[in-house]
Amino acid sequence: MGKDNDNLSSAKRAQNDEFYTQYQDIEKEMEAYLEFNSDVFRGKTILLPCDDPEWSNFTKYFAQRFTALGLKKLISTSYAANSKPAEIPYQPTLFEIASPEFDEIKTKSNGKIFTLTGDASGDGVINVNDLEWTYLKGDGDFRSEEIIELRNEADVIITNPPFSLFREFLAWIVEANKEFVIIGNMNAVTYKEVFPLIQNDKLWLGVTRTGVGSMWFEVNDNAPEKSGQRVDGEKRFQTIGNSAWFTNLDHGRRHEPLTLMSTKDNLKFNKHISPNGYQEYDNYEAIEVPRIDAIPSDYDGVMGVPITFLGKYNPEQFEILGATQRSCHDLVPDRKKYDNYVEMKPDGTPTGSSGGKTNENANLEGNDGKKNYFVNADGHQVQSAYQRIFIRHRRDNEN
Ligand SMILES: C[S@@+](CC[C@H](N)C(=O)[O-])C[C@H]1O[C@@H](n2cnc3c(N)ncnc32)[C@H](O)[C@@H]1O
Questions:
Q1: What is the pLDDT along the chain (399 residues), one digit of tens a residue?
Q2: Last residue in a domain, options 220, 255, 290
């Protein structure tokens, strides 16, 4: 039974990996890097490691723009049908069946590699028609030796990777020290494998999607029906909240400073800040700043801000010191634990949980009567703020 459940959930997870990125979303994001540096892809080999051109608009975009971007080589690999959950329908394309390479067994059991280096068709233009393909030796798993070799050959890795393997996929790129642009869920920013990369300026958010709002992906015909779907002609789309681009390619937005008001003006004009001022956390030496537009321009200490800040982060303006939870805050240590507190519902009845669950959250003294709170034997009450990132103004650039 346990095993069946395991199989079922891994099938569900894998089904959840089949979301295809729309052409215009890719185009808008890539344009932002090109606007900052028109040579960003020039002379480079791009690897798209989860991308069958039949489905992947990444392959279409880069093949179409091969000459304009000055690419050296485009490599796109796909994952074998047999390695995907059985419910995902598979039908080889007419193009594949008509090809002398076609193999009835390999079409299901092997991944494919599509390569573009020049005008293979000889029609004077370089585009998708010039992609040359063959079967891979294995199933195209990005962790396999043959895809690792392609990764090592590439300069830039770009894709929307399988959602269920995001951490592993990112680690796979980072260990090879490659440039990358990938799609993931904003929740990933506080993973203990991801946050240090953000803090050390080795990874940042892209431009057009920074975890705010939702993004539409195409799904296949027999994807489970869920809320947040729409049908457009013959295509079915699923909306996914909190999607973001993660990259280490530079872009203009991260050099635009946020325009901020002074503490005094915030207290006077910002209705999200109490006239009593910014509150210091009970367990961190930092002040709570509940909104990005309330970051005071003249405060030199540590500030806790919502994670949406990362979509506005300019590393010349701020330094990132840590994040609440997951032991990501060595530079801003928590100075208190809540194991001797208990959690209470807003109506004053205990939830049965210990205060230990709020350790490492950013906790504020008091009780607004709306949310659960934590209380100790002395009646001291705290409530936790949402996930926070700790930041401080960089003053070294100012004179
Ligand atoms: C989220 S989809 C995105 C597809 C495509 N990159 C796009 O954006 O349209 C991820 C793809 O990775 C494939 N995949 C799943 N596990 C994989 C693995 N271990 N190695 C390579 N690809 C994998 C899935 O089958 C799926 O087609």
A1: 344 444 445 555 556 688 999 999 999 999 999 999 999 999 999 999 999 988 899 999 999 999 999 999 999 999 999 999 877 878 898 889 999 999 999 999 999 999 999 999 999 999 999 999 999 999 999 999 999 999 999 999 999 999 889 999 999 999 999 999 999 999 999 888 899 999 999 999 999 999 998 899 999 887 888 889 999 998 999 999 999 999 999 999 999 999 999 999 999 999 999 888 999 999 999 999 999 999 999 999 999 999 999 999 999 999 999 999 877 888 999 999 999 999 999 999 999 999 999 999 999 999 999 999 999 999 999 999 999 999 999 987 554
A2: 255
d(CA 371, CA 355): 14
Ligand 1 lined by 159 (C-beta under 6 Å):
yes
111 Cβ below 6 A of ligand 1: no
**Using CA positions, which residue lies closest to atom 6 of ligand 1?**
160
pTM of the complete model: 0.93
Please, which residues have CB within 8 angstroms of residue 331's CB and are 6 or more apart in sequence? 321, 322, 390
Q: What whole-number distance in Å separates Cα of residue 108 and Cα of residue 79?
A: 9
In angstroms, the CA 91 to CA 108 distance is 9
Residue 212 and residue 242: Cα distance in Å, rounded?
Answer: 5
Instruction: Among 255, 280, 298, identify where a domain stops.
Output: 255
Decide: 21 in ligand 1 pocket, CB within 6 A.
Answer: yes
> How many independent structural domains does the chain possess?
2
What distance in angstroms lies between residue 50's CA and the mean position of ligand 1's atoms?
4
CA-closest residue to ligand 1 atom 7: 20
Please give the number of the atom of ligand 1 that sits closest to the Cα of 26. Answer: 8
Q: Are residues 144 and 190 in the same domain?
A: yes
Probe residue for ligand 1, chosen from 12, 16, 17 as the CB with the greatest number of ligand atoms within 8 Å: 17
